[in-house]
Design brief:
The chain is mainly α. It is 76% helix and 4% strand. It folds into two domains: 1-29 and 172-233, Helix Hairpins (Orthogonal Bundle); 34-168, Helix Hairpins. It has five helices and three strands, in the order H-H-H-H-E-E-H-E. Strands 2-1-3 form a three-stranded mixed sheet. Strand 1 (191-195) and strand 2 (198-199) form a beta hairpin.
């Protein structure tokens, strides 16, 4: 088994490990991400405040109507109680009573509007409450799926790590140092397969001598363009 093949196999394993770690990081980020829940909670809180204000407005409207009706009752009692006999005073009382009744109609309209606004606020609150519950359930289900994927991925990566250790133990220490250095320099890709006399990593066409050298099992040959270790297989 050639050294270039061992290094290429090591490269394959490391690529799997790199991608696996990226996915693990992504899973952790997704599990920790609670933005959708927080936005839904904020919406619920807004509708809760709106409902509170609507309830307060309705109570005020009801109190105003009640107070106005008491004023009308007192005015009617004075008007028809028999204590006032002066025609001018009676006329004034009659006009006052009619004005109070007209204003009562306005207050009752306000009360009706307040009731409708409370109904709408209550509906929005219930909708937001239901929406939050749905989102929490969806997030919980998604997190369960992600947790299962994470567990399976960790198990697979542990297996890959064991295989990596076994593969690396059969590689010359100096070749391993070169490999590790290239991995750091070349964005994780230290070994490139040769495809149709071309370096698959950078796309450069190999010279005849480089291609011939890369085919020798006992030699480690690098791409003239990108410097990566070449594997012909």
């Amino acid at each position: 088994m050639s050294q270039s093949f061992k290094l290429f196999r090591l490269q394959q394993i490391d690529t799997i490990l790199d991608k696996g770690q990226i996915r693990l990081d992504e899973i952790d980020r997704l599990i920790a991400d609670d933005l959708e829940i927080r936005l839904s909670q904020q919406r619920l809180e807004r509708t809760r405040r709106k409902r509170f204000e609507a309830e307060k407005n309705l109570r005020l409207a009801e109190e105003n109507v009640k107070s106005q009706r008491l004023k009308i009752e007192r005015s009617q009692s004075t008007l028809y109680g028999g204590k006032v006999v002066n025609p001018k005073e009676l006329q004034d009382l009659q006009q006052e009573s009619e004005a109070l009744k007209r204003y009562l109609e306005t207050l009752e309209d306000h009360q009706l509007v307040a009731m409708l606004e409370l109904d709408e606020a209550e509906s929005q609150f219930r909708e937001a409450e239901s929406n939050l519950a749905d989102i929490e359930n969806q997030v919980a289900a998604q997190r369960k799926i992600l947790a299962t994927e994470k567990s399976e991925l960790i198990h697979d990566l542990q297996r890959q790590e064991s295989e990596r250790d076994a593969t690396a133990s059969n590689i010359d220490i100096y070749d391993m140092r070169s490999y590790d250095t290239l991995r750091k320099q070349k964005n994780g890709i230290a070994v490139a397969r040769v495809v149709e006399k071309t370096c698959a990593a950078c796309g450069s066409t190999l010279t005849a001598s480089t291609f011939s050298s890369a085919q020798v099992p006992t030699k480690i040959t690098r791409c003239n363009s990108c410097g990566r270790i070449l594997y012909v297989g």
